[in-house]
Amino acid sequence: MGVRVEVSSGLRRFLDSYDPARGLELPARGLTPARLLEQLGIPPEEVALVMVNRRPAPRDQELEDGDLVGVFPPLGGG
Amino acid sequence: MHGFFNQALMVDLDSGTSRVLPLEDELLARTLGGRGLAVHLLLQHNPAGVDPLSPENHLIFITGPVAATGIWGSCRYGVFTKSPQTGFFSESYSGGTAAEPMAAAGFDAVIIRGRAAQPTWLEISPQGASFHSAADLWGSDTYQAEEQLKSWIKENRPQAGRSAAVVIGPAGENQVCFAVIENDRWRSAGRTGVGAVMGSKNLKALAFWGDVAKPVAHPELVRELGKEMVAVGKEDKGVAAYKSMGTPMMVDIMSHVGSFPSRYWHQGKSPHQESINAAALHQRCQVKPHACLKCFMACGRMSRVKEGRHAGLVIEGPEYETIYAFGGLCEVDSIEEIAWLNDICDRLGMDTITAGNLVALAMEAHAQGKGDYPIAYGDVDAAARLLEDIAARRGLGAVLARGIREAAAELDMGQEAIHVKGMEPAGYDPRVLKGMGLAYGTSPRGACHLRATFYKPELAGMVDPEQIEGKAQVFVEWEDRLCFFDTLILCRFYRDLYQWDRLGRMVKAVTGLELSEDEMRALARRVMDDTRRFNLREGLTPADDQLPPRFYSQALPETGKVITRQQMDTMLAEYYRVRGWDEMGRPAD
Predict the structure, then answer these.
(1) pLDDT over 90 (residue B304)
(2) Which of B249, B255, B276 to mutate to test binding with chain A, by most A CBs within 10 Å of its CB?
(3) pTM for this one?
(4) Residue ranges of the alpha helices (H) in B421-516?
(5) Which residues contact B150 (CB under 8 A, 6 or more apart)?
(6) What are the Cα distances from residue B317, in Å, to B314, B323, B489?
(7) Cβ separation of B279 and A12 shorter than 8 Å?
(8) Which end of chain B is more exposed for a tag (fewer CB within 10 A), N or C?
């Protein structure tokens, strides 16, 4: 069990392949949101919000096995 | 005063007469027009406890001081009355292009009372009000009615220049309690049933034209602020997000946090997310960003369905809220089908949020074996038929047309029904975003997401969604500033760009008044207090500020979250305290 990552549709253009039903799974060891973006090749300036376990999280937070990460572009509102 | 025409037009549909009501500088400075002026007028002119669908209920159209100036985000008007949906204060705002011709007629407000003996439409111009028969408009949908009126003005009033028509559809004529008023086809004063009040007055439409210029105090400061905002807008990522994805961008994040209301509030995430989100809209439809007048944000989506049974359907939308209501709550699994239901609601003149909630309530009743109306979750054709039935008040539609409180009682769904004060929430589940619980509870018009747009700070990490203590303090900050937006009648989506300092500069540029931040906050607080006084006069008690019981007891399956009654009570007590109200939620006399 690693870190499960959901990438918002507005950022999937940076990924080679992405299955929305499954998301991505990455090993947690040494991973932070900042490193995660680097590994995935998503430019950090395109990302406005990273959520860990459904709450906004700093880019240097150490991730743990079982964490759910969401990656979002800038949001306006509804 | 600059920014105002210093006059309202009082229209009496009983007698078919109108007169000018002068608006003194002192009143305008105290209220800054918009919502502040509306509350004042309703407290003054509406009899306490009036039946919202009776002739004595006043219906007020207002353009704010910034309308028809160079201020960005200013092309909006407000409609104010006592709501037939909630029985409390009603405010509803609409964008598009209508506010500028409305203002050009030269009145800050048009105040309507009475009931016309026959279907009528009103022509509002600098000369005042003219009364016309709407016999040939009655029964027409909103698109036809607006088009027909605009053609009439063009043909018969060659001097008019730009004109606007605001209309109701069959739902408004039939006094469906969540009927809207529409302009520019797809722009609606959408919530609280203002269209039903128009229908109750036998008033199909208002057309506005004129050439009265809006006098501003410092034209050079208006220009300077305008230029500055263009530069700021170019760099702002939120603006770029609105322009590229529109409000449907919210589907992904709301689903991720488990706060995207689905299957009539039984789930926080839809299994169909990928076929109803912004990406699906932009893949399945040809989409162009579309802006109201005086807007560089262009959050609107002008969408044309590319393929399938609705190929060629053109609509400005669907917006996030419509997607949540039909795609989430009703489990309609295709963005094109949601666009179609959106089109039906727009033509009939009904609020999509409430319509989607009521259709989903009927679906849930069917799933529980209650009632005999066959409508399964996801059955889009049955949903379309039910929408038509609501507008025509046929069968179950006649029950739903009376609103959720009566409908839930009749369907034996009283414990299931999700609403506050009779109005259903928007697409933010408060079991996850706790501050939205406070928003839904305390909004004067029922479970409204817009009075403070508190989902924004809760999602963006500015305040923890789980925080309870101290939340009301942050909430009131947002609510006060956006209440100030409603006095000026500014678009919500400029909320990140217009903080207090720019609002102060805007007020000075337009009206000449130099207000400090404290004075602007105090003005907003007075408007909030007066709105509360109006609602208390209409019988509001603290129980009306509570959430529906399911939010307190029924956990969302994805996250296990509820908002407890104790959490809500804590936030409410703090909210009353921060507002300076007593423990019963009453402002001081």
Answers:
(1) yes
(2) B249
(3) 0.97
(4) 434-442, 455-459, 471-488, 500-511
(5) B163, B165, B207
(6) 9, 9, 22
(7) yes
(8) C
